[in-house]
Amino acid sequence: MAQREASHAGSWYSDDGPTLSKQLDKWLSQVSDNIDGIGPIPQPGARVIIAPHAGYAYSGPAAAWAYKSLDLSQAKRIFLLGPSHHIHLTNCALSQCTTYTTPLGPLPLDTRTIADLHATSKFSKMSLATDEDEHSLEMHLPYIHKLLSLHFPDNNNNNGPASSFPPLIPILVGSTTTATERAYGALLAPYLADPTSVFIVSSDFCHWGLRFNYTYYLPSTTSSSPSSDSKGSAGYSLKPTSKPPTSPPIHASIGNIDHLSMSTISSGSHAAFLQNLRETGNTVCGRHPIGVVMAALEVLKSEGKLDEEEGRGMFRFVRYERSSDCVKVADSSVSYASAFAIL
Questions:
Q1: C-beta of residue 130 within 8 angstroms of C-beta of residue 123
Q2: Residue 229, pLDDT above cutoff 60
Q3: Cα–Cα distance between 49 and 66 in angstroms, integer?
Q4: Residues 6+ positions from 98 with CB-CB distance below 8 Å
Q5: Burial class of residue 297 (count of CB atoms within 10 Å of its CB; 0-12, 13-18, 19+)
Q6: pLDDT, tens digit, for every residue of 183-219?
């Protein structure tokens, strides 16, 4: 099994290379080179990002904030972790391909590292059908190709062999338990410690609405700001017949729910993040990939390989958007957030 086709091109994003390239350039150019409270980006050592994976009409601009924050200056391999949307997994699975195609050109896979990970007996193998069905990995490939073409221009050859860029290690993360996330975190921690490794975590945030079976609402008295001490447990689910609340409106409540989750991710505590999800039920679809990477970061901190006083290994969120602003219970939206961590 050698090549994964860009199965979502032409529907979730453009299948025309020049058009797609211009779109990505536009979205990246819209992100300031200097972010308030952070400074110039990318920050040296910003080797880990969280970015969304919806159709580019919805999340393409938000994802640009994560990718513009990514430091690829020392990159020799790129780990891409995404949640499984189509098959039930209780562990993690690896691709059997050697190349991922994109409308911008091919991307090579790191078959040696993939083989090393398989040798641990901790990973399943993705079938080609599963690989091509999953959008959480594919939606990052054009951005990865675009960034690599900018950082490694001498290697950018759309028609040449797919061995020119730092290779990928795609990892499909299933519905993992806390213990399983910690086990995979410990397994991946040595790779994360390597300054030539980049980690990209694929996740959307709140999926709100009846069609997602999630209508949780936080009154303003329980969480009026992202920095509130409330952990979100004082909310309740709206019913289809509920009168639209106004204090705050639904979309503001969704923002509060998301920012509580983002705050626990930024805290660096894997346990706090999982506790937040239990309390609010927030439908962060990439909760498990995020959990695996947070667990890996905790391993590095426990080994003294990250200086927490300097903010190493702590996620900083740089962008938050929603597909729409819900007002009525019948409305729905999906949230998108971008973050980076310096190691």
A1: no
A2: no
A3: 6
A4: 1, 2, 3, 108, 109, 111, 162
A5: buried
A6: 999 999 999 999 999 999 999 999 999 999 999 999 9
Q: How far apart are CA 162 and CA 101, in angstroms?
A: 9
Percentage with pLDDT > 70 across the chain: 93
From the list 117, 94, 268, the residue with the least C-alpha distance to 173 is 94
170, 100 contact by CB (below 8 A)? yes
- Going by C-alpha positions, the residue among 272, 278, 288, 303 that lies closest to residue 181 is 288
Task: State how far the Cα of 264 lies from the Cα of 276, in Å rounded to an integer.
Answer: 7
Scanning the structure block, which residue is given the tokens 């309390």?
A: 279
| Residue 333: φ, ψ to 5° | -160, 160
Q: Which amino acid is at 136?
A: S
Residue entry with tokens 């079938």? 127
193-209 as b/e, with b when 16 or more CB fall inside 10 Å? beeebbbbbbbbbbbbb
Q: What stretch of H or E contains 101?
A: strand 99-102
* Inter-CA distances, 13 with 107, 278, 317, Å: 17, 33, 25
Taking the C-alpha atoms of residue 306 and residue 193, their distance in angstroms, rounded to an integer, is: 9
**Whether the Cβ atoms of residue 132 and residue 73 lie closer than 8 Å to each other:** no
Segment 58-64 mean pLDDT: 97
In single-letter form, the type of residue at position 342 comes to: I
Structure tokens at 191: 């790779």
Mind listing the pLDDT tens digit for each residue in 240-287?
999 999 999 999 999 999 999 999 999 999 999 999 999 999 999 999
Q: How many whole angstroms separate alpha carbon 28 and alpha carbon 26?
A: 6
Strand partners, 249: 246
Q: With contact defined as beta carbons under 8 Å apart, do 90 and 174 qualify?
A: yes
91 contacts 83 by C-beta, under 8 angstroms: no
For the record, the structure tokens of 314 come out as 């702590």
